[in-house]
Specification:
266 residues; alpha/beta; 4-stranded antiparallel β-sheet; 10 strands; 23% strand; binds adenosine-5'-triphosphate; binds magnesium ion; transport; ATP-binding; ABC-type polar-amino-acid transporter
């Protein structure tokens, strides 16, 4: 199963001195991060470290307090930026799929193409079928979300994002709400997107706790804690031989959850 890659390249993400505060709570405290075109970067880190906020600042779901974010060379934090135009270039997949329950899989992939990109029905449906086929759901185009497993719904959400022809894709814990047996199919789609059989892969910034996926697919792993990047590097280095104690502690909890539960108070 290989996701259909749309005509995308040239999309790189450059984050410089990014800060975000909610009131007195400074959640991002100066993030510098670059994702080159076609590169896959996995972000890991404890709950509350600012991973989702980082992604949300990239597509302007949150307004950064300071710093710059460039996507494909365009400064999305410029005061005169067209937010809708920015969001069209960035696909985002969340933990919750947020499909319309009254629309079929096909309808869910068609609707934003029609409303946002103003594509005609025939073209939007053709692209939707291609993308649904790409995520392994050619036989589910007529199914409603309630008739699909969580993994299938998440793959519809990925197809929906790809149908918009994004330059970059952001994933925020796309498999963490899924039953374990459904995780593999979603990760398989993401792997196909990152490493297509031909051509350059999608530029991807992925928040995940799936260390096997990070190890195999990521070009780089970034460990965040307390709103800063503590360390980053090739997956084998960061995951198997972390330089920082905080990274080691986090990884021991993620890689061996049973051991982490020992000593919990309740
Ligand atoms: N809209 C908001 N208003 C106020 N505080 C917020 C808002 N969004 C996030 N925060 C705070 O920012 C901090 C970082 O949250 P964020 O969701 O980015 O963490 P995370 O690393 O994604 O955590 P998790 O692994 O649990 O998803 C938290 O302390 C959170 O309470
Ligand atoms: Mg989060």
């Amino acid at each position: 199963m290989t996701a259909v890659k749309t005509e995308t390249s040239g999309g790189a993400i450059e984050i410089g001195g990014l800060r975000k505060a909610f009131g007195a709570n400074e959640v991002l405290r100066g993030i510098d991060l670059r994702v080159a075109s076609g590169e896959v970067v996995c972000v890991i880190g404890p709950s509350g470290s600012g991973k989702s906020t980082l992604l949300r600042c990239v597509n302007l779901l949150e307004e950064p307090t300071a710093g710059t974010v460039r996507v494909g060379g365009v400064d999305v934090t410029a005061p005169d930026v067209d937010i809708d135009a920015v969001r069209r270039r960035i696909g985002m997949v969340f933990q919750s799929f947020n499909l319309f329950p009254h629309l079929t899989a096909l309808g869910n992939v068609v609707i934003a193409q029609r409303k946002v990109l103003r594509r005609g029905r025939a073209e939007a449906e053709r692209i939707a079928r291609e993308q649904l086929e790409g995520v392994g759901l050619a036989d589910k185009t007529g199914s409603y979300p309630a008739q699909l497993s969580g993994g299938q719904q998440q793959r519809v959400a990925i197809a929906r994002a790809l149908a918009m022809g994004p330059e970059v894709m952001l994933f925020d814990e796309p498999t963490s709400a899924l039953d374990p047996e459904l995780v593999g199919d979603v990760l398989g789609v993401m792997r196909g997107l990152a490493r297509p059989g031909e051509g350059r892969g999608m530029t991807m910034l992925v928040v995940t706790h799936e260390m096997g996926f990070a190890r195999e697919v990521a070009d780089r792993v970034v460990f965040m804690d307390g709103g800063v990047v503590v360390e980053e590097g090739p997956p084998a280095r960061v995951i198997d031989d972390p330089a920082h104690e905080r990274t080691r502690t986090f990884l021991s909890r993620v890689l061996d959850p049973a051991a982490a539960r020992v000593g919990e108070t309740d």
